[in-house]
């Protein structure tokens, strides 16, 4: 069995909305190169994989046929992109080959998940994926096809009875929540900046799932400015308890790194070190609860030099069971490439020097604190549905 099935091929950089768009494909290139230069791609048990674009028959499992037709038309002629389907404009502009590029990402996440489910690999990572905003009938938030939903659907079709999804992107994982709103076999947990101040404007504590799946959707809407200690406190107060109650057979996670203090599109204040700590915790939960069955994807993240490559290289190292020490100096070869390619300095170490110390929920809560109020709102809405006490651990 492989330790890690890692999705990477330069073909994935074809997902390109053009100059000036935040979702720049260089994010992927630099993440793969840093992982390589750290020795992770050549580590024992790591196997690279690519994928052919998913056929329409698979994409129709999570997307409407009329939407697929609209994407195909826009993919051939971007000037005819139909805004009724979320295509065109500044958010998700159309580009030549958009269908093929998006369908390749979707297929890769599905195939990687099934490789883990069937025992070919213990873990899988697709940092090219994580398109959690794509809806059944429209593109949204830079996301065309929902690779995560397609991967989870593939797992259910393959016999999985309980799949848990944890989304750590700064934006609410609305597309995945929508896909499984009425399916009690899938638990979706999203920790994100509050929709009162940030796209997509959803993801509040009272969004709990449909009539047949109440409690299957969990949302922690964090106040702007939340930093390492508060974010990790919120994570620990919600995620492990609910995952242990749900007892998933497979864990899917989304690791958008736009929670970082330097990200230009949001207002949280995490460090690389807190993002790494979240990945470590989710990896450990996968081993505790799912016999290690874990698919991790990328997602948002728009500080493309200082943040995205380091966070996702840490993710690759954790999944490869070759975790990178935060104090490690970044290889000179990668720093030189950044200087030539981006004409700017590169970071020197795999850490921001942040602390992952935080006050556990078991020490008590403060209703006067905005972070604790957000966590309490979620726990009060969800925990009783699982027979858990919202106030105490």
UniProtKB/TrEMBL annotation:
It comes from the Bacteria. Keywords: Acetoin catabolism. It comes from Spongisporangium articulatum. Belongs to the histone deacetylase family. InterPro entries: AcuC (IPR003085), HDACs (IPR000286), His_deacetylse_dom (IPR023801), His_deacetylse_dom_sf (IPR037138), Ureohydrolase_dom_sf (IPR023696). The lineage of its organism: Bacteria, Bacillati, Actinomycetota, Actinomycetes, Kineosporiales. PANTHER family: HISTONE DEACETYLASE HDAC1 (PTHR10625:SF10), HISTONE DEACETYLASE HDAC1-RELATED (PTHR10625). The keyword Transferase does not apply. It holds the Pfam family Hist_deacetyl. This is Acetoin utilization protein AcuC. Residues 349-368 are annotated as: Disordered. The keyword Coiled coil does not apply. Residues 21-316 form the Histone deacetylase domain. Pathway: Ketone degradation; acetoin degradation.
